[in-house]
Amino acid sequence: MNLDRNLIGLLKEEKQPFILSGLFGSIGTLLLICQAWVLGGIIEQVFKTPGGSSAILPLAGLFALFSILRMIMGWSANQTAKHGTLIIRKKLSDRLACAVGDLGPAFTRSEQSGRLVTTMLKGVESIDAYFSQYIPQLFLALVTPLMILAAVFPSDWIAGTIMVLTAPLIPFFMIVIGKSASAATEKQWTTMSRMSGYFLDMLEGLTTLKLFAQAKARRDGIEEASEKFRLSTMKVLKIAFLSSLTLELVGTIGIAVTAVSIGVRLTSGAMPFRPAVFILLLIPDFYLTLRQLGTKFHAGMEGGTASKEIHGILDKASGRPKVPGRLDLPAGTASSLPIVIDNLTYTFPDSPKPAIDGVSCTLRPGTVTALTGPSGAGKSTFMNLLLRFIEPDAGTLSLGNVPVANYTPVAWYRNIAWVPQHPFLFNATIRENLLMAKPGATHRQIETALLQAGLAEMVQSLPEGLDTMIGEQGARLSGGEAQRLSLARAFLKDAPILLLDEPTSHTDPILEARLRLAMAELMQGRTVVMIAHRLESIRNADRILVLDGGRLVQSGTHEELSTIDGFYRHAVLSSMEAA
Amino acid sequence: MKTFLRLVGLTRPFAWWMLLAALIGFATIGSGIGLLMTSAWLITRAALLPPVSALKFGIVGVRIFGASRGVLRYAERLISHDTTFKILTKLRLWFYDAVEPLAPARLAAFRSADLLKRITDDIQSLENIYSRVLAPPLTAMLVTALMFVLVGAWSPVAALGVLAFQLMAGIAVPLVTVQAAKGTARGIMKLQAEQQILAVDMVQGLGELQVFGMLDTHLGRMHDAEKKKLDLQKRTAFFEGMHESLSGLAMNAAVIWILWSMLPLVKTGTVSGITLTAVIFGVIASFEAFLPLTGSMQHLEADIRAGDRLFEIIDTQPEVKVPERPEPLPAHYDIVVNNLSFTYPGSIRAAIDDVSFIIPQGGRTAIVGPSGAGKSTLTSLLVRFWNPYAGSISVGGKNIATLDPEGLRRRIAVVSQRTYLFGQSIRENLLLASPDADDQALKAALSAAGLESLYGRLDDWAGQHGMNLSGGERQRLAIARMILQNAPVIVLDEATANLDAVTEQAILDTIDRVSNGKTVLAITHRLQRMERFDRIVVMNEGKTIEEGRHDELLRLNGFYAGMWRLQHETML
Questions:
Q1: Which residues of chain A lie closer than 8 angstroms to B219, CB-CB?
Q2: Is A98 helix (H, G, I), strand (E, B) or coil?
C-alpha cells in the first residue's frame, strides 16, 4: 500500500488541510451521486412523456447546479491538499537544512556532496506528489466506491453485489500482479538507467575516444547497445503491462455484466427504469477511482524513496548527542588564556580504533604549535576537535579552566580564525566572501587584509575588482589565490586563536614565498595551531607535537626533539630528507 | 515553435508507428464510448419490455467493447513504448553525431559530470515527446471528430455544441491553466537555481559558515528562498487544480446542451429516447480523451526547454574543422613549436604566450612549471583539440592544421593525469588504442606495462570510470594503451601525478623502457628524475622563462632551481 511511516508521521503533524481535502472530495462524490440520480430522472421523463414534460426543466437546472458545485468541490479538495503539502515541504526542507547544519562539516565531507544537495532540493520536491496526489487519491479510492455502493444497494442489490464482488479484484490483482510487475518494472528501471549511464559514459569519455581516433567507430556501439536495451525492456514490459490489462478488463467487464444483468431484469419488468440509468451512470466512476490509484501509485513511490534518504539524514542528526553550551565568550577574551587539552579521545563511528587516543597537552597563549606526523596520524581529527566540528568521546578541551563545551559554538567561533588546506569560496563576489569573516568591515580594512595576504594586485587586475563573482558559478580562482583569500579572511577576522592547515602547493616558488610571509605576519601575537608540512615551519614553531596512530608520541622544540633518538628524528626528519 | 518543429522533425522516421499507436489509442477510447453507448441502448431498449432476444445486439456489443478496450489499451501501450525507445535511440545517436566534432573545445563548459548528466537527462526527457506530447492531442482530435460525426448524424446543432465544449476542454482549459502558470514557471526556475547555489554553498562551505558564525544567516536565506518558491508553486497550483474540475464542468455543460438541443427532436419523434440516452452516455465517455492534455502542454514546455538547451550546444561551430584535402602524414616526427599563442575564450589571461621550442625526432623534452602555467594547453593544441590564436605547431615539417586530425591523433599517444576508463570490459578499454589487436598483442602490452595480473581478467568489467581497478592499475592500463597504439610521438601529461611515490617510480621505469627511440614530450610540475631529459623547458604564466638541461638549470639558480628546492624540502 506504500504508506511510508515517516511520511505518515508528517501527515499527522499537518492533518487539518488533508481532512478538509477529504471532506471536499467526499462531498464531490456525493454530488456525483446526486447528479447521476437527477440525470436518471431526466432520461426517465424523456421516456415517460416523449412529448415533453415540465418536470425536465427544474431537473436540468439541478443538474447544472450540481455540476458547478462539483467543480468547486473538486478544485477545493485539490487546493487544500496542495496547501497542506506545501506546509509539509516547507517544514521538511527547514528541518533537513538544520539537520545538515547540526551534523556539521565532518558529515558533509564524508558524504557525496552532489547527492546531498540533490536530497535537500529534489528530494523534498519529489515528496510533493505523495501528499498532493497519492494521499488524496488513496482516501478517495476508499471512500468513493463505498459511497457509490451505498447509493446503488438500495436501488438494486444485484448490481451492488456484482460491484462488491468485482471491486476487490482490482486491489487483489494490483497486489498479485503488482508484485511480479513491480519486480519487472524495477528491472526495467535498472536497465534504463544502465543504458543512460552507458551513454553518459561515452559522452564523458568523448575526449579519450577522440584521442584514440575512435569517436566515429563508437557510434555503432551506442546504437547496438541502445537497441539491445530496447528489446530487453520490451520483453519486460510485455509482462508488466498485463497488470493494467487485467485491471482494465475487470472494470469494463464489471460494467458489461452489470449492464446486461440490469437489461435482462428490465425486460421482465423486475426493475424500475430510473435506478437502472442511475446505476449505469455511476459504475464507470466506481471502477475509475480504484484504477486511478494505480496511476498515482508511482508518484507516491518516488516520494517513498526520497523519504528514506531524507529521514536517514534527519535520524542521524537527532541521534547525535548534543552539548549545547550556554556561556558567552566575547571576542578577544581567549587571547590571554591557554588551551588545555586533557586526555582527548575520539573514535569515528564505524572505526574500531580511536583516531585521537588520550592526547593531553597545554598550548600557551601567543605561541605557535606545529602538528606533525605521518598521514593518518590524526592531525586533521585533532584540528576538527579544536574546531568543534566533532565532539570528543572522552576527555576535555578547555580554555583556561572552563571546558570549551560550556561555551556556545557561536561564542567559541568568535575567537577562532581558520585557514583550511582547501578553503571554500562561496558563490558570491570577492567582497562578500571577505565580509563573511567580519560583516561590518570597512573598505579600508578589506584593502588592508588583501594587501597583507598578498592578493591586492590580483584583485586590482580584475575588471570588476572586489565585485567579481567567484566560486563555482563565477570566475575560478587558482588554488594559491583561494588560499590567499582565506588568509585575507583570517586577517580581517583578527581572532586570538588561529587554526591553520599549511598549504602544500609546492609548485610555484614565488607564490610559496609570498604565502610564507603572509602567514608569518598572521601568526604574530596569536595562539596558533598548525598542521605543518614544511620543515622550516616546524623548525620555527615554539612547540612541536608529533602524532602517530592517534597518540601524542613526542612533544618539544625542534632542538629538543632532534637530540632525542625518537620518532621525530627517525620518521619526520628522515622522510623529509628523502623527498 | 522553431525548437518544437525541429524536435518533431527528429521523430519523423517513426511517423507511421506513431500514427498507428495514436489510432489504437483512439480505438481504445472509442471502445469506452461504445461500451457506455451500447449499455445505455441495452437498458433503455430493455425498458420498453421487448423479448430478451431483441437485446441480443446490445449484449454482444457490450461484451465486445468491454473486452476490446483492455486489449486495445494493452496493444497501444506496447507500441507506444516501443516507439518511444526507438525515438530515444535515434535521439542519442543524433546528439552524439552532432556533439562529437565539438568535443572537447566547445564542451569545456560542460566538463563537470553534473552538467553532462543534465544533458543526458534532457535527452531522456525528450523521449516522451511522442507519448506525452504528440499522441494525446492526436487521439483527442480523432475522438472529437468521431463524436461530431456520431452526434451530427442525429442533430447538427447538438454536434456543434458538443464540439464547442470539447474544444473548450481540449484547448481552452489546458491553454488557460498553463498560460496562467507560465509567469510563475520562470520565477520558480530562477529560485530553484538560487537554491541550488545556496545548498552547494551550505554543503561544501559548512565549515566556513560555522567558524564565521554565518550558519544561521545562511539557513535563513535558504528558508526564504524555499518560502518564495513555495508561494509561487501555490499560485501555479491554484490554476492547475482548476483543470480537472473545468474539464468536468465542460462535460456536464455538453450534457445539458444535448438535452436542450435534442429534446425538441424527441418531442417531434425524429429522434428516439433511446438514441438520446445513448448519445448522452457517449459524450460523457468521450471526455476521457481530454484529461491528458494539460499534461501534454506542460511536457511540451519542458521538452522545448530541454530542446533549447541541446540545440544551443549542437548549433555551435566546431573549433577544429577537418581540412578538405588533408596533406599526407609526415614520414618523420620532429616537433617545431613556433611563436605559439593561445587564449581560452572568455579568459583575460593568455594560456600560452608566444612560445617557441623544438623537439628533434627521438628527443626527450620536459615542460615544467607551476600549475596554471599553460603546460597542458600545449597538449590540447598538439592533438588539435583547439586551434592556436597565433603561431603554429609543425610535425615533420608540416603544419598540423593541414593534416587530417584523426590521422595525427593516431600518431600521438597521450597519457594524461586522469586516465578515462569506460564502464566496459578491460579488453574493450584496451582495444580503443588498437581495434584489431589480438589476445597476444594485448597480453604483450599488459606485461610491458607491468600488468600481468590482468591476463585472466581481460573480459572483466572495469567498473564505472574504471573504479574496479586501483589508481596504479588504471595508470598502467593507460600505458598499455600507449604501447598498443605504437605511435611515434608520446606525450606524458602529468602521467604519474596522482600516484604514490613507489608506484610512480615503477611506472616511470616502464615508460622509459617502452618509449625508447620515440619522440617524447613530458609535462609535469613534479620534478622527479629530471636528469633523463635532453632538454627542459620551464614555463610560467604562459611564457617560457628558462630552458636547458637539469644540471644547467640548477646552476642557473633561477625559477627552476627554486621549484626544485621547494619540492625537495617539503614533507608529508
A1: 94, 97-98, 101
A2: helix
- Beta-bridged to residue B394, according to DSSP, are B336, B399
Q: Determine how β-strand B390-395 pairs with β-strand B364-368.
A: unpaired
Among A418, A507, A533, beta carbon nearest to B371:
A507
How many residues appear in chain A?
A: 579
What does the pLDDT look like over A301-352, one tens digit per residue? 778 778 888 998 999 888 776 666 788 888 777 888 999 999 999 998 878 8
CA distance B181 to A557: 70
Joined together, the cell numbers standing for residue B30 give: 472509442
- pLDDT tens for residues A479-533? 778 888 999 999 999 999 999 988 765 567 777 777 888 888 999 999 999 998 7
With 90 as the cut, is the pLDDT of residue A21 above it? Answer: yes
Q: Give chain B positions within 8 Å (CB) of A83.
A: 234
- For residues A468 and A430, give the distance between their C-alpha atoms in angstroms, rounded to a whole number: 6
CA dihedral A97, A102, A106, A107 (to 10 degrees): -50
Alpha-carbon distances, residue B214 vs A101, A414, B228, B334 (angstroms): 11, 11, 21, 58
Tell me which chain B residues have a C-beta less than 8 angstroms from the C-beta of A498: none
Model confidence at A68, pLDDT cuts 50, 70, 90, reads very high
Question: Exposure string (b/e) for A404-430, b if CB count within 10 Å is 16 or more?
Answer: bbbbebebbbbbbbbbbbebbbbbbbb
Given this model, what pLDDT does residue A468 score?
Answer: 86
Phi, psi of B523 (to 5 degrees): -115, 125
Query: Is there a contact between B66 and A253 if contact means CB atoms under 8 Å apart?
Result: yes
Q: Could you give the CA distance from residue B166 to residue B157 in angstroms, rounded to a whole number?
A: 14
b/e sequence A367-391, b meaning 16+ C-beta within 10 Å: bbbbbbbbeebbbbbbbbbbbbbbb
Phi and psi, residue B524, nearest 5°: -155, 155
For residue B343, give the nearest of B376, B374, B306, B311 by alpha carbon.
B374
Interface contact B256, partner A, CB < 8 A = yes
- Asked if residue A2 has pLDDT above 70, the reply is no
| DSSP string for residues in A460-517 | HHSTTGGG-BBSTTSBPPPHHHHHHHHHHHHHHH--SEEEEE-----S-HHHHHHHHH
Sign of CA dihedral B390, B395, B400, B402: positive
Yes or no, beta carbons of A234 and B210 under 8 Å apart: no
Give the start-end residues of each E strand in B275-319.
none
Select from B39, B121, B188, B203 the residue whose CB has the most chain A CBs within 10 Å, as the one to mutate to test that interface: B203
pLDDT recorded at residue A157: 92
Report yes or no: B125 and B302 within 8 Å, Cβ to Cβ.
Answer: yes
Residues within 8 A of A (CB atoms), B 287-346 only: none
Give the up-direction half-sphere exposure of residue A52: CA atoms within 13 A in the CB hemisphere.
13
The one-letter amino acid code at A76 reads: S
Q: Closest CB to A60: pick one of B97, B259, B409.
A: B259
Angle value at C-alpha A416, between A415 and A418, nearest 5 degrees:
165
- 3-state secondary structure at position B117: helix
Tens of pLDDT, residue by residue over B299-324, are 888 888 888 888 888 888 888 888 88
Determine whether the interchain pair A512/B199 forms a contact, defined as Cβ–Cβ distance below 8 Å. no
Contacts of B546 in chain A (CB under 8 A): none
Q: Are A144 and A29 in contact (CB under 8 A)?
A: yes
H or E stretch covering B391 = strand B390-395
| CA dist list (Å): A241 to A178, A236, A267, B71 | 10, 9, 39, 11
d(CA B560, CA B565): 9
Q: What interface predicted TM-score (ipTM) does this complex get?
A: 0.85
The three-state DSSP-derived secondary structure of B392-414 is EEEECCEEHHHECHHHHHHCEEE
